[in-house]
Amino acid sequence: MKNEFENDLLSVEERKLGTKKIRPLFFAYTISAVLGMGMQMVMGIADGFFVGNGIGPVGLGAISIVYPFWIIAIALGTMIGVGSSTLAGIKLGQGKREEARAVVGQCFWYSNFFSIIVTVLILIFLEKILILFGAQGEILNTAMQYTKVFMLGFPFYVTGLQLFYLIRIDEKPGLGLLIQTVPAGIALIVEYLLIFELDAGITGSAIGAWIITLGSWYLLVLHFIFGKTVLKIKMKDMKLNLTNIKEMHKIGFAGFIIQVSPTVVTIVINNLIGIYGKESDFAVYGVMNAYILYILTSFTNSFGFGLLPIASYNYGAKQFARVKEVLVISIKYTICFLIICVAAIFIFADQILTFFIGPVPELVESTKSAMYLFIPLFPLGAMTLIASNYFQAVEKNGKAIINSLTRNIIFILPLLFILPRLLGMAGIWICQPLADFMSCIVAVYYLMKERNELQRK
């Protein structure tokens, strides 16, 4: 009876990922991801409002400092999630059902073990890390308060994000939407009460983040242990297969690099602000980086959720025409959507920034001036995300890593060490669009070559 059930589930996999028309399949995955992440984006936007209006510029400055911890959690969850979901998706495409299930279970336990170790190390050296990130004065104390609470949820965030990637390959996008929406809604209410009614300060923001991560983790674990899925997590999976773990790292490393590299940039920029700017510039960067760019990147990642399972499954099944089709569709719709988003941000800049910052006209104007320099070419830079996601999905890890490094390491770091010396704070902001443009050229080159190769297969 069990085998019949699993065969039925597998036939569903084959019918959808392997045979359904690419465009509606891509949109089904992307829209469910946008809606699911949409609630978390609402939570992120609300968090910006709560911190900016309930705590003030010091709170926004602290968010700018601690934001790398979010990125590190996302980077680890992405590495394990992309690696395990891609490996499992390819094995499903090859008909190796039990091997796919084992990959999911082993990577889940590995994610728990690894993220707990990282959490302990960060808490031990927390103050030194925050100073390295650029924290100073009152902002350092506020950042310490936030991080001590936030790190309690760090392992749950990493593992929960990993399972969210896996639920896409498990053909459960609707369940993924529910799992992201419910905890975020609860956190929204709790954070409002903590900051505005109970005067909990920056700790209220950290508790809100903790509720989201724990709630999503709990619901995802319930599904993969007790739900109707061929990708069940079992206790025997605690005995790790090092070959699977190594392959997972190999596939997911590019995703880790593309997520963690902004952390390097954030640390460098925060330290440069300490040299060339003033304390309010930390708040300017906090609004742009932790909220505006967070929203744009979340949308880009949602389109990546549409690309990854379809590309990996069909590549494993050697249906290369379908792989090429989903790649082209992903590029076209992701870039067009991001252009619309950036245009809307510029048109409604005053309203958006006042929402986050509150009635502080000088800070709103400073942030608007910086934002006009900082984000206009983000849609071009997003090509690196598309390229990296695609090459991870088809196990071309060298190309994925190259595209992961161009935008936030190879091009922007040299610019950050040159332009601020010539232009001051304006030089810091203008580095990002220059890096976006140059990295886009590299991504287009690799993607055009890949499209031609798929054409010949």
UniProtKB/TrEMBL annotation:
UniProt GO molecular function: antiporter activity; xenobiotic transmembrane transporter activity
Cell membrane as UniProt keyword: yes
Principal location class: membrane
Domain of life: Bacteria
Cellular localisation: Cell membrane
Transmembrane segments: 25-45, 65-90, 102-126, 146-167, 174-195, 207-231, 251-276, 291-314, 326-349, 369-388, 400-420, 426-448
The entry's keywords: Antibiotic resistance, Cell membrane, Membrane, Transmembrane, Transmembrane helix, Transport
Pfam families: MatE
GO biological process, one term: response to antibiotic
GO CC list: plasma membrane
Family label: Belongs to the multi antimicrobial extrusion (MATE) (TC 2.A.66.1) family. MepA subfamily.
InterPro entries per UniProt: MATE_fam (IPR002528), MATE_MepA-like (IPR045070), MATE_MepA_subfamily (IPR051327), MdtK-like (IPR048279)
Protein name: Multidrug export protein MepA
Membrane topology: Multi-pass membrane protein
